[in-house]
Amino acid sequence: MDLRFTEAQEILRKMARDFLATECPKTLVRELEQSDKGYSPELWKKMSELGWMGLIIPEEYDGMGYSFQDLTVLMEEIGRNILPGPLVPTIISTFPILEAGTEDQKKEFLPKIAQGKLILTTALLEADGTFNASGIATKATPKGDDFVINGTKLFVEMAHVADYLICVTRTKDGSPAEKGITLFIADNKSPGIRCEVIPTMAADKECEVRFESVAVPKKNMLGKLDGGWPIVETLLRKGSIVKCAESVGALQTCVEMTVAYSKERVQYDRPIGAFQALQHIMADMWTAMETSRYLVYEVAWMESEGLPCAKEASMAKAYVNEVYKNVSKWAVRLHGGIATSYDHDIPLYYRRSKAADSAFGGTDFHRELVAQKIGLA
Amino acid sequence: MDFELTDEQKARRKEFFDVCRELEKKKPPSLVGIEAVFADDDCWEFHLHCAKEFAKRGWLTLAWPSQYGGTGTMMDRVLFAEARGYHGIPGVDIFGVQMLAPTLLQAASEEIKKEFLPPIARAEVSWCELWSEPNAGSDLAILSTTAIKKGDEYIINGQKTWNSGAHRADWGFGVFKTDPNARKHHNLSFLLLDMKTPGITVRPIPYMDRGTPFCEVYFDDVHVPAKNIVGQENEGWAVVNTLAGFERSSLTEIMSLVRALEELVKFCNETKRNGQPLAKDPVIRNRVAQLACELEAARALAYRVADLQNRNEMALMDASAVKIFSSELGERFAFTVTDILGPYGQVSSSRWSPMQGEWEKMYQECFVTTISMGTNEIQRNIIAWYGLGLPRMK
């Protein structure tokens, strides 16, 4: 047991921290929130030069061949700084290609992703908002050399600028719902796809994507026909861990900013950080952050080592969801009125705590998975 | 970053668990909670039996320097704590083995070490702690029980309180005022004393569940040899601070909750209400799952502390955080489980009580970990002042 980052991880962490601090200041974050695109192509290009899109893509596909654990180190820094745009959706969308892609598909997509030439995102959720297979109603029907997709996907992050969508469809009705799911890599320029940005709290460009008789070539089917749900489960698990790592970074900023402010802000002739009423809240914020941190590190290690960790990933997601919401809430409260303003940095985190919570399953969804996995009948 | 144990550690862990599993078969049913060993004769006998078993295997001296009979590593101590926690096995004298021995190793003279460490290693002597007083709790340094030097003895007068197991202990270690005129923190000394010394009166205090884990100890002209001092005269506060760093491992408590969760899941699967198992109730599923998530978080942080300690690094903030979190998780377990049990949650061990009445006990005993060993409020001060660098209360 050695719970320190490796030297290479420390280098990655420092490089990412310095880069993001310089290249993605909060002024840019707010600017991007209000822009149509929601990301900076210039920044995207610089990140591609650092190899971030290909961090976990094997070297044979032009990636950097880093481990999943290394990826969570980068994600923590991204969460710490905040980085709007399609980097995280693109990386998460490579998981299914890496896991289930054919050699041809890997050769076609992975090098371009690694080089920053493609933006990807995953189209999973639909109208009823559940992460269970029962929520997948978008139909894919075989026709000649194609499958024809009809339906509406929701909360698809950065779909409005994506080149390809990993689309989760229903190819067979009946029970159980998990048995009839198939994934496709759909070209976002295909005729019949229409995309609209949904206004969300974090202005993170979650989209509605409508498929109207969209033809996707059969060769773009990802994994087996009707056998796509296990790929989705892996995506949800890995996506949850990635989101948790991002949240741990965000927690660090919330705690640091609050502690620093409480040492500066003077009321009743002393820094407000001298009041125990506030000290104990900050101690609790720190404890919540630290428990989250090591829980997430543990799960990231398990995932990276290929150990079964569906239970632990759900535990982490359910736990960190609540911690991020609460700690960022307390960060606003302890700053007082100033942190309720749009121009303050703390609300950037508070608003993102809800986005992080929703992504890859909310607290109650994951608690139910935990209930099953600890053996409740 | 690597959470994996080495093959050697895995083998050690198995050895600890195997022995504790065997011991559990002889565990008295009244042994619930960490203070029960002091409250009940059967439990105390069982504790002494386990202590002898552990001493025989050299497990009371884990991570001691080899010249004092030490065996194993810090990590072994962690793994041993896990095994005892999971199986609910006492046998490690909290005060002698866990607190005093490491303090002596760090702060005592060679003479004291040679006299007092071997009986601790052999489980021949049980210790108690003589710290708190009626008017000195968290602010321990204002204590008023005096030990005035006269020739080659200290004469002690005053009263200590909340002394776990003092009625069963052979020896006690305590902090006393040796210079009533000196300034705070430079007027105290750390002394070791035989609890059979004339002038000592021990009175058990009935706990809210009518058990007697705690005592008051009265000193009336108690003569203690001056050579029984640890550290310098009037500089006992430094020894107190050293000892405070050797709290009981939170992993013992965390692993006892791991076991409790397993039992709870079993109970929910087997017990019907409204014609279906409790486990089918979505509210109960959600609440139990929440406990499971928090428990995993507590465990991960406890490993962080163990990892730091294993490398001899400071674990100040994390040690306080895991103490706060795991002890309050114990409270949440007690509240949640007694809720799930409905009216049975209030029933003491009897033919009506589910799970041996364990949770009726835990509902009352959860304070033992939140209040003792530095209250959770003091732990929050430690994080705020020494960790976050916030202004210290004068």
Report on this structure.
- The complex is a heterodimer of chains A (about 375) and B (about 400).
- Chain A has about 375 residues and is an alpha+beta fold.
- Chain A folds into three domains: about 110 residues, Acyl-CoA dehydrogenase/oxidase, N-terminal domain (Butyryl-Coa Dehydrogenase, subunit A, domain 1); about 110 residues, Butyryl-CoA Dehydrogenase, subunit A, domain 2, CATH 2.40.110; about 140 residues, Butyryl-CoA Dehydrogenase, subunit A, domain 3.
- Chain A contains eleven helices and ten strands.
- In chain A, a hairpin with a 2-residue loop joins strand 2 and strand 3.
- In chain A, helix 7 packs antiparallel against helix 8.
- The mean pLDDT of chain A is about 95.
- Chain B has about 400 residues and is of the alpha+beta class.
- Chain B folds into three domains: about 90 residues, Butyryl-Coa Dehydrogenase, subunit A, domain 1 (Orthogonal Bundle); about 120 residues, Butyryl-CoA Dehydrogenase, subunit A, domain 2 (Beta Barrel), CATH 2.40.110.10; about 140 residues, Butyryl-CoA Dehydrogenase, subunit A, domain 3 (Up-down Bundle).
- Chain B has 13 helices and ten strands.
- Chain B has a four-stranded mixed sheet.
- In chain B, strand 2 and strand 3 form a beta hairpin.
- In chain B, helix 9 runs antiparallel to helix 10.
- The longest helix of chain B is centred in the last third of the chain and has 29 residues.
- Chain B is globular and about 75 Å long.
- The mean pLDDT of chain B is about 95.
- Classes of the chains: A alpha+beta (about 375), B alpha+beta (about 400).
- At the A-B interface, helix 7, strand 10, helix 8, helix 9 and helix 11 of A face helix 8, helix 9, helix 10 and helix 13 of B.
